Backbone:
């Protein structure tokens, strides 16, 4: 281990003890050059730790591999819960770890600090569709220059190298990738959101240039070009550019006191917290469906007795828990199943205290019998998950 940490690209490689000693030394007397050396030491040690993580992830996957069916479907969820990651983040890290098993030179470069995790990930992702001999050829082409290049530059090199490795297969992958085109929406801070289009590059380039051309014709002194492009794109998508309009239903969970004029934040469905003033403005502009909460944030309302919950109860539970209740999962409740924590056929009531949103993936995880999980529900939308290794994870609604 010590030797691996010392195999660094510094002019005079240090032992791990010397490197750690340098990192813990007082920085107040260091000049510019010494501070840059300190930063390089940090990057090398981080890269070594990342390489250990990659090997540990791959090894854990082996522990969750069935002789007949291969790697267990929910292995990344178990990792995510243990490390406080989202299942998606765990899946990406695990995929990189598994891909690096056939890229020993890339893993060595990470272990030795010649590249960082993001560069190793870029290489692993780029060569994933290639045969082993083709992947090795791409490795040979890009690794010598990888240390001195940015991740973006490395990805550009990789795209060229992968196409050269098998041009016919690259064209087929382009055609297959076009099937994954999608329009996505996610929330950001301060009442903002991101609307994203994933589509073939020629069409997205043409669309952007069209919006840019229109924006340059209507730009005024009060708006930047970026702001004008955004306004033009939203007008086109909403129908306003053609004199049309789109009717909108806004679902918002709002404290009773907010309706009386105070500044308690409200909750916009599929987005998150918004200011009281914004919520009141929405009520003037759209058909707003309100769920009222008390001072403690609990949703007002209750009932229980049939398998399928009434609409108001479904809205109540999904307002209380706006995301899937599995640790780290960010799937929206309105895109998830409404699950009886204690199954209805086992006497579980149809009530808010026995209901919670689970995305389809984690709904199936709850029901699996191979390396099974256990789920318990507590008042207020709180849940306790117990993993196959008896690790316990608690989830609860975000404070309001």
Residues:
């Amino acid at each position: 281990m010590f030797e691996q940490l010392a195999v660094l690209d510094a002019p005079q490689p240090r032992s791990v003890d010397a490197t750690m000693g340098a990192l813990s030394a007082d920085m107040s007397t260091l000049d510019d050059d010494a501070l840059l050396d300190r930063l390089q030491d940090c990057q090398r040690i981080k890269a070594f730790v990342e390489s250990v993580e990659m090997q540990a992830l791959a090894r854990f996957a082996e522990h969750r591999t069935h002789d007949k069916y291969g790697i267990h479907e929910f292995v990344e969820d178990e990792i995510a819960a243990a490390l406080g990651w989202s299942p998606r983040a765990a899946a990406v890290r695990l995929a990189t770890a598994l891909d690096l098993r056939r890229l020993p030179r890339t893993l060595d470069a990470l272990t030795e600090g010649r590249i960082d995790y993001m560069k190793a990930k870029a290489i692993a992702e780029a060569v994933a569709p290639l045969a082993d001999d083709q992947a090795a050829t791409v490795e040979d082409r890009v690794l010598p220059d990888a240390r001195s290049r940015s991740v973006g530059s490395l990805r550009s090199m990789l795209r060229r190298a992968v196409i050269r490795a098998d041009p016919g297969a690259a064209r087929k992958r382009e055609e297959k990738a076009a099937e994954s085109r999608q329009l996505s929406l996610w929330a950001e801070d301060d009442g903002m959101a991101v609307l994203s289009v994933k589509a073939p590059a020629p069409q997205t380039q043409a669309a952007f240039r069209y919006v840019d051309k229109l924006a340059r014709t209507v730009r005024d002194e009060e708006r930047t070009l970026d702001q004008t492009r955004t306004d033009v794109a939203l007008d086109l998508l909403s129908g306003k550019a053609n004199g049309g309009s789109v009717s909108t239903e806004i679902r918002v969970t709002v404290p009773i006191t907010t309706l009386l004029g105070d500044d308690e934040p409200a909750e916009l469905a599929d987005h998150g917290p918004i200011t009281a003033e914004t919520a009141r403005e929405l009520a003037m502009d759209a058909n707003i469906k309100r769920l009222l909460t008390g001072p403690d944030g609990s949703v007002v309302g209750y009932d229980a007795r049939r398998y399928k919950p009434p609409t108001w109860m479904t809205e109540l539970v999904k307002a209380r828990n706006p995301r899937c209740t599995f640790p780290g999962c960010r799937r929206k409740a309105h895109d998830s199943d409404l699950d009886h924590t204690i199954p209805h056929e086992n006497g579980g009531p149809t009530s808010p205290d026995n209901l919670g949103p689970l995305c389809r993936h984690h709904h199936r995880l709850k029901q699996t019998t191979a390396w099974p999980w256990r789920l318990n529900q507590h008042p207020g939308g709180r849940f306790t998950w117990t993993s196959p290794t008896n690790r316990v994870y608690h989830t609860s609604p975000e404070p309001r």
Observations:
- The longest strand covers residues 249-255.
- DSSP finds 16 helices and 13 strands in the chain.
- Residues 32-63 form the longest helix (32 residues).
